[in-house]
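For reproducibility, we list the full input for the magnesium ion complex.
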Amino acid sequence: MLSIKNLSVAIKGKEILKGINLEVNAGEVHAIMGPNGTGKSTLAYVIGGREGYEVTSGEIIYKGRNLLDLSTEERACEGIFLGFQYPVEIPGVSITNFLRTAINEQRKYQGLDPIPAAQFLAKMEEKKKMLELQDKLANRSVNEGFSGGEKKKNEIFQMAMLEPSLAILDETDSGLDIDALRIVATGVNNLRRPHNSTIVITHYQRLLDYIVPDVVHVLYDGRIVKSGGKEMALELEEKGYEWIKNSL
Amino acid sequence: MEKESNNILDEVTKGEYKYGFYTDIEMETAPKGLNEDIIRYISARKNEPEWLLEFRLKSYRHWLTMKEPKWAHINYPAIDFQDIIYYAAPKPKKELKSLDEVDPELINTFNKLGISLEEQKRLSGVAVDAVIDSVSVKTTFSDTLAKLGIIFCSFSEAVQKHPDLVKQYLGSVVPHTDNFFASLNSAVFSDGSFCYIPKGVRCPIELSTYFRINAANTGQFERTLIVADEGAYVSYMEGCTAPQRDENQLHAAIVEIVALKDAEVKYSTVQNWYPGDKDGKGGIYNFVTKRGICKGSHSKISWTQVETGSAITWKYPSVILMGDYSIGEFYSVAVTNHHQQADTGTKMVHLGRNTKSTIISKGISAGQSNNSYRGLVRVIKRAENCRNFSQCDSLLLGDKCGAHTFPYIRTENPTSIVEHEATTSKISDDQLFYCQQRGISTESAIGLIVNGYAKEVLQHLPMEFAVEAQKLLSVSLEGSVG
Ligand SMILES: Nc1ncnc2c1ncn2[C@@H]1O[C@H](COP(=O)(O)OP(=O)(O)OP(=O)(O)O)[C@@H](O)[C@H]1O
Ligand SMILES: [Mg+2]
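The corresponding predicted structure, in tokenized form, follows.
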């Protein structure tokens, strides 16, 4: 699915990622943990195709193609989804209109006709139910005036609607209450398929109780310094990042 | 709506000014230039009564004493008023009884615009008074309206058939001395629409006029007069597109609205005249005077405009709130791209007690354009308990464009409450990335964000217009980012 080799990335000339190696196979869930400011979001943005990130070396192969050759929209249409750490507000644009536009643009890319209205609405209903979303939320403007938790839920709702091949969830658990966390995790689990992969970026072991990862990575100072099974997350929580630092 | 707005966004990929075609209809024109003889010629051609010729002449004589205004935040080369043709009419043909008899070229034009009269008649129940250049060619639905006593016809026809009404109200809201362009219009106005809604009648359909500037080198001087008698209601739509061409075309229209006691008039505009090309060449000069008077108590006048076209827009639809408890509203979206310039806004003049006004203005600037809001809220001494709320927002796309706000507030009565809010924002890279990450192209993303930004205004448009307006917003901002 995703193969990152020796990836180095600079922002405004400053090197943030310093030779990342990461292999994610179809059907796998990977967790990335690590202290603040070590480059977790940067990695997510580079995969998403955000401007202002200079790839100084290395490559990203996605579904056998060189991902860095594709525009942001193309990557999205090829099935890459980013759950944002800080989702932006788009005043006046309803979630319904936003998602319909997104789905239809993706379908256009795939050579399909726009989604029939009835099918779209049925899908909305289904996913709203799955995520126990309030009805009125979908009629509100994208993220405008949403609480922190509502924004995160909305990210998962969009993921559910867009059905990506590779979802990267950047601290989707931050700001969620216990019930919301369970709902979001259930949502993510429900969307797990043998041909889908998920990367969850998190600070909390707790999330991994719900979304059980195949591999846990620790990103430290722009490098993946340690990878292991889900038990490593527990160990991390116990011993803190000092443990990683000292073992380097 | 949802569905439509998506279709619209799909269409956004087409870049050229879509309505840039030119209809080949034989014109009958006056010689270039302006003098009293030309005015007499126009008046004679239209078979006007003596009092109207006098109105034109006194306007012309006043105009001669005036200077072109320079206070607006716009720049354009001096207009040579002697190099303009002041009268052009499609050659008069025999009276038309059905659409079959209309010039096929004209029908073709409407088809290209997607507003064929036939369609309009059949589908949306809109009565269309289509103005091609200076003379109304076809008026529909007159019969239905006539049964209710509603008069909706070309201005020229009204002069012939309802001279008393025209004489009573012409120039009563915009005097012939009002401003340079208004005086010019009063002297040479060609044609336009007239509408009268009798006492207690609610007009059951949206009245609509499609304007089209169509003749080379011909100034267009529309004159519209709408009178809503006591307790009457009417919603009126004005929309236009123009053929693409090189030389600048002057347009100086006047719209006058009179609302008597308990009457309500809703006036909506979608303006999409040729804005000039990417380098600022060509385009329409749009100097318009629009004003309504809430003459009786509890009357209401509401202006909603979506301005996307014209090289230069100079326009301040205003309301004089004379009757106690009357209400004035102004909802505006003005888009400027490339080298377009817009100086637009409103005046709310509170003369009556307990009068209320609302101003929502959304400016969107892209390219190297300039977009200014200019507004006046005035409350006179006797006008107690007046209320105004103004919100003026500017959205910038790129960093070469300009947005300016000139709000003037003059209150002489301490019991009035006047509020003004203003914001300036940009479409952020974060918003664009967020959309793109969901698979939405840059152009569609801009269309989406801009339509969201303008929603508060668009929702005041009649349904028939809202869709076209959304499309225009997207289309007119094509190529503005990236
Ligand atoms: N646009 C930018 N300009 C300058 N520095 C930046 C920019 N974006 C990120 N950085 C820097 O890059 C480093 C990595 O940031 P990143 O957001 O990837 O961290 P993170 O691991 O996601 O942290 P957190 O756990 O706090 O979310 C930080 O030092 C940050 O300040
Ligand atoms: Mg982060």
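The longest strand of chain B covers residues 284-294. Residues A 40-41, 85, 170-171 surround magnesium ion (ligand 2) (CB under 6 Å). Both points were considered when choosing residues for closer inspection.
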